[in-house]
Amino acid sequence: MSAHQVNPGESKYAETARQFRENVKKDLANDELRGNFRGAMNYLMDKRKNAFPDSNELETLREQCKLIKQRCLLKLPHLLEQLEENLTNNGINVHWAETIDEANGIIAKLIKDKNGSKVVKGKSMVSEETALNDYLEARDIECLEADMGEFIVQLANEHPSHIIVPAIHKNKDQVADLFAEKISGFERTNDVDKLINEGRRVLRDKFKNADVGITGVNFAVAETGTLCLVENEGNGQMCTAVPDLHIAITGIEKVVEFLDDVPPLLSLLTRSATGQAISTYFNMISKPRQSDEKDGPEEVHLVLLDNGRSQAFADDELRQTLQCIRCGACMNHCPVYTRIGGHAYGTVYPGPIGKIISPHMLGLEATKDLPTASSMCGACGEVCPVKIPIPKLLQRLRQESVKPKGDGAQVMLGQGSNRSSIEAMVWKGWSLMHRNSTLYRISMWFGTRFRGLMPSKIGVWTSVRSAPKLAPKTLHERVNERNKQMSRQGDKHGRG
Hints:
Elements: H1 13-18, H2 20-28, H3 31-51, H4 55-74, H5 76-90, E1 93-97, H6 100-113, E2 118-121, H7 125-129, H8 132-137, E3 142-145, H9 148-155, H10 172-182, H11 192-209, E4 212-215, E5 219-221, E6 226-231, H12 235-241, E7 245-251, E8 255-256, H13 262-273, E9 281-285, E10 299-305, H14 309-313, H15 329-332, H16 335-340, H17 351-362, H18 364-367, H19 379-383, H20 390-402, H21 421-435, H22 437-449, H23 475-495
């Protein structure tokens, strides 16, 4: 696969990512939304903290899992070939897709070849990445989300605002209003248990009649040819066991080398995501239904998607982005995400991880504002279970976005798209001034004497900050005046 080819024009998220600043203004003004996120983030942070009472164990596990992911990424081309070979030997068909259009086309053809028209889909962020639901619906294939949070989001005609808790932006009253509007015969209630049961009632009927089940993959084990699926609600189990056709879709970075690599990663994933010691379900899929088995699909297919991942893989530093195990901890601890929510980013993956992975999928031109939407407090890097240096990668992406075009090899699509020739000239002047002491002092003298001419609006800087005010005199002048004053006082005392 090409190291640099991505197709930002294919994704519906490219345009919404460009609207980041407008989205932020709108969502910051939504007090209910901000309240929903504040309460949810506090809850998830407390759950994670309580799940790791031993800080030494946490750091040991983080280091172990970081090394596992880095080892697997170093061997990624070989492991992908090994995974394909073992899956094929197990009876699972493997398909390769470089772009989201290719992935969607493969899935649609598999469904049509089986004369399928009704799909139930377990939670899968990669299928969100490809906008699979929209693609299938345009071809008269019904695709229903089976995860409760995804089901709620689908009813609302939205996309997930969090990679673990898709409907985290909604409270129970909003869900009750949604069900009352969208589900025939539902008697409005804001009792959470009754809302969940109503969702289950609708979904059970869909499972019975589904032709196809689609899921994501948390870990793909190259050693054994096994697809691992982590979930809590049982929808993944139903999607993979009831329909005759199971299609799994995942990014190429989800492959791990050994089955022994999975337990430590699973322990970190569940505790970092929801504070659970282990998830309710852990599905391991290695073969389609065998002759002596009573359930399971007749066919199993895996679609391996690139969509910019090989671009990140090609760079030693940016490759660390692919270590992500999709736990959402960086979002839960991010002060920016907590205040603006997930939809403001306009991308499939919001929050800190979205800021570093979305540029590879959509290009830097569409996502140029995301790397700068950070306080650089470092919380995301401190809580990342696999130690992705997110702040450092954000700095790298900022550099790539303003790099002169044609300056060295092209690292990623859209490189230099945030560059301003005026800003570049200003920084060159700033650099020259600070390298020449005489020029610096002259500039400072003029700046302090004509400070009244300082504009009150300085681009985006003053959109959220007060304009800087220069002092009447420079520091050097004030220090020199103080030294002279002290010298005169010394002379006076000496004469006395």
